[in-house]
Amino acid sequence: MSKKTLQKTLLFIVISVSLLALLSYAATRLSRIPAPPALLALALEWEPPSGSYKFFDSSEVQIAPPPDSVDTQPLPEQLQALAPQIAWRDGQSIDFAQFLKATHTNALLVLHRGALVFESYPRGSQRDTVFPSFSLAKSMLSDLVGVALNEGKIGSLDDPVSLYLPELPARFSKLRVYDLLHMRSGIHVDERYDSVFSRIAYMYITTDLRRFVRELDTVAYTPQQGFEYRSVDYLLLGMLLSAATGESLSHYLQHKIWQPMRAQYAASWSIDSDRNQVEKGFCCVNARAIDFARYGLLHLRNGKLGERQILPAQWMQKPEATGHADDHFDYGRGWWLPRLNGSGDARDYTAIGIHGQYVYIDPVSDTVIVKLSDHGAEQDEALTVAAFRSMVAALQKQAH
């Protein structure tokens, strides 16, 4: 091949690749999904789930500025070993280190009686490592709804959703705030995580969530007639809360929870895009494990930090079960309610996010367990709660 021919060939390749890249960018823009590099990185899982937040725009959640920030004190520490054996599969026990490895644990923190008794980052993270909450954010959003109700920003859980979101398609006119909070809307957006072409996957990556909402058109049942775990309900609930308060979700989180609870680190809430600025209310508060633990402690203290009431006390009680999720859990107000020996008399409850994220609350033993992981999409939730219960039992035994 002559030098001139080679130059022409290389020029043709460069032009072709450039045109393809331009077309790809145009196609993703028209489809309202991330640009090709981010889309490719997500599809090929170039980052583990715990790093996926890096590919999305976000809105900052700041810690308290001076002079309030000087009140941010480290949690008291009384570090100790946890139970060497953990309850696990088929009624058997496994070594504690095996449990952490088997469930791909990135961070495990335990607060007991107000003190940090255990903190571990088995896979190389550190205290200042940022982790995405995934659906832990639903529980936090639920608490923010409680704040808005207490402030009168939301009049009642019986208010029609259209009062706050008039742009919602008319076919959903019967929806109440209650229906979104308890996932009883009947809106049909499949909670399927096994396909990149599912509606839930598109909802997660779209750069225009308002358009996604305008195009909702399918119902699985009439509102109030049943329960189905559907993230779309919390997308709408987040948009409703923002409309009711006149603030972004990240700003409301910052001023109603993050700064009042004296979070140690700033956080963020993933949004659809910098252009549209809609938080993903169904997921994606990005923070440090230690601050998720502080958040759990608010629930143990009935919403108080010291003498200051941060969250409404009546909202801090174990949520009522309003949906039967599966054989192991009920669901209520953004929280998972594990059963005890097949009955509903357990007092513990937990926030759960995909890939193994937990903020577990046990009021009886005064314990919070935060576990952040890169585990499977849907696996071992009931086993993990059983493991937490065995940790709690060991802590109580040591205390006596």
In which range does the helix fraction lie? Answer: 25-40%
User: What's the main sheet like?
Assistant: 5 strands, antiparallel
Q: Summarize model confidence as the mean pLDDT.
A: 87
Instruction: Kindly state the number of beta strands.
Output: 16
The CATH architecture of the largest domain is 3-Layer(aba) Sandwich
Order of helices and strands: HHEEEHEEEHHHHHHEEHEEEEEEEEH
Oligomer: single chain
- Estimate the global geometry from the Cα principal axes: globular
> What is the CATH topology descriptor of the largest domain?
Beta-lactamase
Q: What is the domain tally?
A: 2
Structural class: alpha+beta
Keywords:
single chain, 400 residues, alpha+beta, Beta-lactamase, 2 domains, four-stranded antiparallel sheet, globular
How would you explain this protein's 3D organization?
The protein is built from 11 helices and 16 strands. The protein has helices spanning 3-31, 36-43, 96-102, 136-151, 177-181, 199-205, 209-214, 231-245, 249-258, 289-300, 381-399; strands at residues 58-61, 85-87, 93-95, 105-112, 115-120, 131-132, 267-270, 285-287, 304-305, 308-309, 323-324, 329-332, 335-338, 349-353, 357-362, 367-373. It starts with a helix and ends with a helix. The strands form 5 sheets. Strands 5-4-16-15-14 form a 5-stranded antiparallel β-sheet, with helices on both faces. Helix 4 runs parallel beside helix 8 (231-245) and helix 4 (136-151) packs across helix 9 (249-258). With 400 residues, the chain is of the alpha+beta class. It folds into 2 domains: 3-42 and 49-54; 58-399, Beta-lactamase, CATH 3.40.710.10. A hairpin with a 2-residue loop joins strand 4 (105-112) and strand 5 (115-120).
